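The material for today's practical consists of a large collection of protein records. Getting from the letters to the C-alpha cells is the skill we practise here. To make this concrete, we reproduce a full record directly below:
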Amino acid sequence: MSTSTTHVQKETILSLNYYEIFSLDPSARDVDFGSVHRAYRRFALLFHPDKDPSPAARAAFERVKLAAETLTDPQMRREYDEELLQKLQRSTGTGATSAWQRQQRDVMEEEALAADMILRQKEAATAAKAAAKREEELEKEAAAKQMLHELTNALTTPFKRMEEELVHEWEIDEDLLSMKEKEVESLLQKLREYNEGQGRHGRSVDAHTCGTKRRRSEEETASKV
C-alpha cells in the first residue's frame, strides 16, 4: 500500500463520524460487536504505531479506538448520539436534521415500547405469582377448616350418641309406667300382708309360751306342798 493511499485513508477516517467509520446504521438499536471488532483489527493493521509511526496514523488509530469503545458501550453511545445530533443541528440547521431526528425518535419509541413490554411482563408475572400464592393460602385455610371440622366431629360424636341414648331411655311409655306402678303397689301390699301375718303368729306363740310357763309353775308349787 502506497504512502499517499495510507494518507488518504487516515484523512478519511478523521473526517467521518463513528458510525461512518464502521459503516453502521445510526438508527439501529443494537451494534454488531463482531463487525466492530473485525473492522477495528483491520484498522489496527493500518494505523497502529507499530505499523505506521506517523502522527496522522496515530491520530487515526486513536479515533478508531475511541469510536469502537463508544459504540460498544450503551451509555457512551447515547451520549455520543446526543452530541452528534447537536453538531448536525449547528452545522446544517434543523431542517437538514429532521431525518436524523425522526430516526432517533423512532429508536427511542421502540426502546420505550420494549421497556414497557418488559415492565408489563414483569407485572403479569408478579400478579400471577401473587394469585398462585393466594390460591395456595386459600387451599391451606380450607384444609385447616376441614381438619378442625373432622376433629370436632370425632370429639363430639360419642357424647352426642350418649345423649341420644339417655333421651331415648327417658322417653318411657305411659302404659308401661302404669303397669310398673301397679306391680310395685302389689308388691307393697303383699309385704304389708306378710308383716301383719308375722305379727299375728308372733302373738299366738307368745300366748302359748306364757301358758306353758304358768302350768309348769303351778306344777312345781304343787309338788313342793
